[in-house]
Amino acid sequence: MNNSTKKITLALLTAAFTVGAAGVAAAETVGAAGPGNAGELCHGKDGKGRHGERFQRADKNSDGFLTESEVGAERWARIKVADANNDKKVSRDELKQAFKDGKLGRRHGPKNKS
What we know:
Layout: H1 3-31, H2 49-58, E1 65-66, H3 68-71, H4 73-79, E2 90-91, H5 92-100
Antiparallel strand pairs: 1-2
């Protein structure tokens, strides 16, 4: 391999790495518990998996509930429909049920047309 080929190979590998790293960062940003992703941060199985982790991050006092002070007014306006017992806090189970009932939209995947 001559010097010119080595430089081109190194440049291509660097570009591939940069594009790959940017793609991972973009995917994490889109899936993060940021504004507009209220439903994404909420549900999970037994607090495990990415949804459970998002719920735990949003649950700042680790009491198992999300409140307006923890998620902010904008997100709270979207998820408060899940507050089944009107205690001004939303549990992971309440959010899961709200998704199931269609109160918070689809969780993921194509809509079942049957």
